[in-house]
Amino acid sequence: MDVFNDITLFIPTHNRHSYLKRLLEYYKDTPINIVIGDSSETKYSEQINLSQTRYFHFPNTSFGEKIYQSILNVKTKYIVICADDDFILTSGISTCLKFLKENPDYSSVNGYYIGIQKHQTRVLFSPKYLHSVGLDINQEIPSMRIKTMFSNQMTTFYSVQFTENILKSFEYSRFHITNYYFQEFMAIFFSLIHGKYKVLPVFYGVREISAQSSGAITVSVSDIISLESNSEEYRYFINCIADYLQRYELILSGESQKIIEGAMTSYVEIWEKRCALEKNTFDNPSRLSVFKEKIRMLPCIGKLIINAYNKHIGFFRFQHILINQTKGIDGFPFFEKEGKKELVRIKKYFKMNKT
Questions:
Q1: pTM (predicted TM-score)
Q2: Which of 35, 111, 294, 307 could bond to 202 as cystine, CB 3.0-4.6 Å?
Q3: Rounded CA gap, 196 and 194, in Å?
Q4: For residue 287, is pLDDT > 60?
């Protein structure tokens, strides 16, 4: 399809060929350019039957160098990065691409994400990033866009965006930054310096919730910043972005550094508040928890009943509450015919063997 001529789907992967296999199966009937950057020790051995797919093997290469070398092989003006455990819908990509072409003052755009996870024998979906609904970082001044973005704790990294912007960010970070978070943040900063960002009301992607996702196995930003061994790397990170900001905004060096440091501090503070809020949501007493405690005191069967509730009913109840929060919000798939069909399709690929 002509709509995909100007964009490349880039899939970075590392020692997770089973994830790559299911993702390529998902895109097998899609006429989109695909570039795979694989830093696994061994080369992917499966047959790749997608004519518009190019595979590059960089064994034991760092994340930043892999991204940079892979994107050098992207020939299209636009790019969308898809983690190997995500599913980004082609319908979402085409909608976002159309928006970028019609709004040249925007540098990145995405839509709504749905979480997917396995619980016992069932596969469950739930909305993610509900705080992003309606988010439009549309200030004309780059530093203002940075402040707004990092106080909303969103990312442009997996958005539809300009290839040259993300390539430039990794040109700066690939040799000097080793932490995945800092490399991703640098790409976000560069994107916001170049243009605006918007979350469209469209079903965009499905993200796996598991202990193996990159966000779950990478050290948290707050921990990284506080580690003395990473202080030199962090200073390079701050200074590099501050210098880049000065190229596009008339601002003093010291002020630009304060803006970047303030954005990172804001991100960490909001992250910690959200973590505390989630903990309080489950830990605070409520009518339900009081009732559960009474059940627990029943002789013989009380603990069995509560354990069964926590294992099954309570988990599903929480999922149901989250899904109901999307009622009336265009773009979420739970109450739309086409959206529900796509969830069923993704569920099939998600259940593929990943061992």
A1: 0.86
A2: 111
A3: 7
A4: no
